[in-house]
Design brief:
six-stranded mixed sheet; eight-stranded antiparallel sheet; 19 strands; alpha+beta; 26% strand; 2 domains; Rossmann fold; 8 helices
């Protein structure tokens, strides 16, 4: 499949329902600050095309300069998009990325941000999730996310534990924490929708312990398997050395295909969005207040040093996080 390009005149102008218009206007105005005359690009793929078209129609309420690109579904979260998509992203003022696999941790997204584009990445988003989570006031979410990011920046190390069996040490020395606030109105701003997390890239080669993903898996969940059994990851010298449980074979196939860099412990994140819920969908689960998530693979685009075309998060229920002697979460409750 080649990339299909649709200009403003080719985007189907179906009327919006009142709640759809409310959600889209909140995204366009509050989250991205789209202004009349700006160039808006929506990138989507066949499974997410209806949502891509919905966001394109929403963008047309703010500016007449809207382009929709339909690309093939990517093989992995973090896989680079086709060259035409990367080129269009770097030329846009605003990019919406409702895709099946994440474009967040790609050179295409990073280059678009460097060129000044404001980017909202929405991998695996569903219509129900968009309608439920994108009509929130991001003020409180931003304040909590920024406070947690500052504490992560100040900490030299973190210990992450949870009742499910997680017990992981992470070295954060010299690394900076970031906040995904849901407000991407400054040139080059980037984040997820739904938003709401603080995150950091741990130091490579230093993580060790056990990860138990019991809220959402870092691979497509086979038949909601995470509700029955958890994925267990043994971590040594900063790498996921062995994986057992649901989805283990799929994750091992990624490691075999992409090498040890895909095993890298790439990110620690803390959810801060009260409008989200444990749903099995990583994009949403990782934003739930009081959850923690750990990603494997690429960390280059969030302050780390590992560059591989793969980045995928797993989510942990009821974590406790100690950062530099300060408790950030206690048994799933924010402590700051």
């Amino acid at each position: 499949m080649t990339v299909l390009e649709l200009g403003s005149d080719a985007i189907e102008p179906r009327p919006l329902e009142a709640d759809q218009a409310q959600m889209l206007d909140a995204v366009m105005r509050q989250s991205l600050g789209v202004r009349s005359g700006e160039r808006v690009l929506v990138v989507t793929d066949p499974p997410k095309r209806p949502l891509g078209e919905l966001f394109a129609r929403g963008a047309l309420r703010a500016t007449p300069n809207v382009q929709l690109l339909l690309m093939p579904e990517a093989p992995d979260h973090g896989s680079e998009p086709p060259a035409r998509v990367a080129e269009a992203m770097a030329e846009a003022d605003v990019c919406f990325l409702p895709t099946s696999k994440s474009l967040s941790h790609t050179h295409a997204r990073r280059n678009a941000s460097a060129a000044g584009a404001r980017v909202a990445s929405m991998p695996s988003i569903t219509y129900e999730m968009a309608m439920r989570t994108l009509r929130v006031d991001y003020g409180d979410i931003a304040r909590m996310s920024q406070a947690l990011a500052a504490l992560l920046t100040a900490a030299d190390s973190v210990r992450l534990t949870a009742p499910g069996g997680t017990d992981l040490y992470l070295d954060l020395h010299g690394r900076r924490g970031f906040a995904d606030t849901g407000v991407f109105t400054a040139p080059g701003a980037f984040g997820n929708l739904p938003a709401g997390e603080a995150f950091i890239a741990p130091l490579e080669g230093r993580a060790h312990g056990t990860l138990v993903f019991d809220a959402a898996l870092p691979v497509d969940d086979p038949d909601d398997a995470v509700s029955v059994a958890s994925m267990v990851v043994d971590v040594r010298d900063g790498l996921a050395r062995s994986v057992t449980g649901p989805g283990a074979q799929d994750l091992q196939a990624v490691f075999d295909r992409l090498g040890d860099d895909a095993r890298n412990i790439a990110e620690l994140g803390i959810g801060t969005n009260p409008a989200t819920r444990i749903s099995g969908n990583v994009l949403e689960c990782e934003k739930v207040v009081g959850t923690a998530h750990v990603a494997l693979g690429n960390s280059l685009h969030i302050g780390g040093a590992t560059d591989v075309p793969f980045h995928s998060d797993g989510v942990i229920n009821r974590p406790t996080i100690l950062a530099g002697g300060i408790s950030l979460i206690e048994d799933g409750r924010l402590a700051v």
